[in-house]
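Appendix B, example 12.
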Amino acid sequence: MRSFNTGPAGMLMMVVGLLLAVSSAYTAFTQSRWPMLLPSILIGLSLMAVGYSLVARARRARSRADSDGPDRDELQ
């Protein structure tokens, strides 16, 4: 069974996406240039979504591994 921890990468993607989306939205609405900055806002939001997905996958894998216990069968 392959196991990899994507939690830290997901958390980093969420933070970068949040910063990009918020800073672009702030700049867009304070300077009335939102049509030009809409792609940056959407990229930031999509980074947040992908990061959340990775964090959720890591949590599910960790909780599944914890619930299996030390005597689980590795040859599944």
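The radius of gyration is 18 Å. The chain has a mean pLDDT of 80.
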